[in-house]
Amino acid sequence: MVNLSQVIGFLIITIVAFVASAGGEQVVTYVFGDSLTEVGNNNYLQSLAKSNYPFYGIDYEGGKATGRFTNGRTIGDIISEKLGIESPPPYLSLVPNDDAILKGVNYASGGAGILNDTGLYFIQRMTFDDQINSFEKTKEAIKAKIGQEAAEKHVNEAVYFIGMGSNDYVNNFLQPFLAAGQQYTHDEFVELLASTLGEQFTRLHQLGARKIVFHGLGPLGCIPSQRVKSTRGICLKQVNLWVQQFNSKVKKLVDNLNKHLPYAQMTFADTYPLVLDLIENPKAYGFKISNTSCCNVDTSVGGLCLPNSKLCTNRTEYVFWDAFHPTDAANAVLADRIFATLFHQTTSSPAPAPAPTRARKFFSRKHRN
Asked: Where does the record locate the signal sequence feature (predicted)?
């Protein structure tokens, strides 16, 4: 079992190290993922996977939907806040030569997967391959702005956050009407995911990405959309076992790529135990309900929070917002736990001032390029 403190610690250490070593310059982050990290790309697509309508964003600044699949902020938003940087904007909101590309971009898209056929029934979404293609265009635009040598340095020093794979299960392998679940055994399916992911990581490396953090999958068997498949409304043990098999496979993949790709500094962040503990012990974190969603969703038609849905009376008491995604309050707890794991503080305490110095020493000692 991966040591949670080490992997989560490195996730934040990586970012803070860049903040500390940048001499006041803003850390640059490029985000790839699905609806857990999307900040609005699907607003610009003809997609069935959208959240730019009430009640999404009801607890976000201004109270309006932005395309985030929650009632407020994503974990990425909250971590950015803690680091004093702006959350990267959605790629599709930018013009090709926008100056904002030098400060980071979010390519995440609801419904996206590792496999290109994942989420096909959403019509349009940016798959992981699509997101990598978009990053390649971003890099070309950066070259045009600051020259090739500076562009290479820029992409080498940026941090790349990737969270992929949930849809490959929830909206592919676990769907009885799709081919993947019938065509492959799970052993075959997880091998396909890992081999495809290996090719995608390698391509990102060829484009200059060095410091990559891949977020493993959480306990998908415990999300509301899967619990309803149980007659007792409990977590689906088999799904969680499959997820852990995927996480283990990807951890080995990342270790292998670090050995064979020059200057690669990839890490696998196993957040599975952290999320599972929040779901199994909600009261320890100030929540009351973790087995169903705040928004009364219809899982037979997608599980999203529609404008005519009924909301819970206290959104801060629920771990899940809809059938798939955490609430703003749950995202805040998870982000705080990540920082607390690194700095050994209580979840309500801010990161101490000396932390960047410790992080810099750690990074320069163990992860020198």
From this structure: 1-24
